[in-house]
Specification:
Layout: H1 8-16, E1 24-28, E2 35-45, E3 48-59, E4 64-70, E5 75-76, E6 88-90, E7 98-101, E8 110-114, E9 126-132, E10 137-140, H2 142-150, E11 156-158, E12 163-170, E13 174-183, E14 187-197, E15 203-212, E16 215-224
Parallel strand pairs: 1-6
Antiparallel strand pairs: 1-2, 2-3, 3-4, 3-5, 7-8, 8-9, 9-10, 11-12, 12-13, 13-14, 14-15, 15-16
Length: 233
C-alpha cells in the first residue's frame, strides 16, 4: 500500500483539499532509517517539477509525523518517471527533494526540504528543520537554512568529525570550502576555511585558515596544476 492510499479520503479533503487532484504526487519510501515521505508539487514540465509543494513525513508504522510546505519544491525525475497528475511516482532519496540526516549531531534525525535554487550560482537551496525534543516535532532552523541555501548545494555532513561542510566558488577558478562545528545550545562555529585559487594558468594556490584554541592559523601553499589533487585530504 502506498502512502497516498492510506487514509486517502482524509488526506485529500481534510489536509490538502480538492486541489490535490491537480497536483503531481510522489513518494520516497525509506527516506531515512525512521521515515517515509509523501510529496505533492504544483507544476511539472518534462523532467523538472517545482512551485509550491508539501512534504508529509510518516514513520515506518504509517503514522503521520509532520507536514512541511515549500514555496518552490524543485525535483528532477529520472528516466521512466514521467510526471502525470494523479499518478503516484516513487522516488529514491538520492533525488534529494527531501534530505534526512542528523544535522546538529544530537542523535536525532533532522529534515531538509528543497526550496528553489537560491544558492551560489543558482545552486539548490533547502529549508532545514531540526528535531526539538521538548516540542516533539521539527522546528525550522534559520541558521542551518541559511547555510543550506548559500552554497553550491546543501552542506555535507561529516558525522565522524561532527562538522558541516559548505562549498562555493567565484568565477570559474576560485573554489571555497568552509567547515563548521555545531556547538550545543549555541549554534554554528566556523572552524576551517580553504580557498583553491586556480586563476593563474599552471598553478593552484591553496590558502587554509584553521581555528585552533580560538586563534586562526593561516597557511598558503602553491602547487603545479598537474600535481594538485583536490580530493586528497
Amino acid at each position: 500500500m502506498n502512502l497516498f492510499e492510506r487514509n486517502k479520503h482524509l488526506h485529500a479533503f481534510v489536509l490538502l483539499g480538492p486541489a490535490c487532484f491537480g497536483q503531481y504526487q510522489f513518494e520516497v519510501k525509506n527516506a531515512s532509517k525512521s521515515y517515509d515521505a509523501a510529496i505533492q508539487i504544483e507544476n511539472c514540465y518534462d523532467d523538472r517539477c517545482g512551485g509550491k509543494g508539501t512534504v508529509e513525513l510518516f514513520d515506518h508504522k504509517n503514522s503521520k509525523v509532520q507536514t512541511f510546505v515549500s514555496e518552490d519544491l524543485v525535483l528532477y525525475t529520472e528516466q521512466g518517471q514521467k510526471p502525470i497528475q494523479g499518478k503516484l511516482i516513487s522516488l529514491s532519496k538520492d533525488q534529494r527533494a527531501v534530505i534526512i540526516d542528523d544535522f546538529n549531531f544530537d542523535g536525532t534525525e533532522d529534515v531538509a526540504i528543497r526550496n528553489g535554487n537560491m544558492g551560489n550560482y543558482s545552486g539548490a537551496s533547502y529549508d532545514v528543520y531540526v528535531f526539538n525534543k521538548t516540542r516533539m516535532g521539527f522546528v525550522k532552523s534559520q541558521e542551518l537554512t541559511e547555510l543550506g541555501s548559500n552554497g553550491l548545494d546543501i552542506f555535507d555532513v561529516d558525522a565522524k568529525r561532527k562538522r558541516l561542510i559548505s562549498y562555493g566558488k567565484s568565477g570559474c577558478c576560485d573554489i571555497f570550502t568552509t567547515e563548521y562545528a555545531v556547538v550545543p545550545n549555541k549554534g554554528l562555529d566556523k572552524v576551517f576555511e580553504k580557498e583553491e585559487d586556480m586563476t593563474v594558468e599552471g598553478r593552484v594556490k591553496v590558502t587554509t585558515k584553521e581555528k585552533l584554541n580560538n586563534k586562526w592559523i593561516t597557511k598558503t601553499k602553491v602547487y603545479p596544476s598537474d600535481q594538485y589533487n583536490r580530493n586528497k585530504k
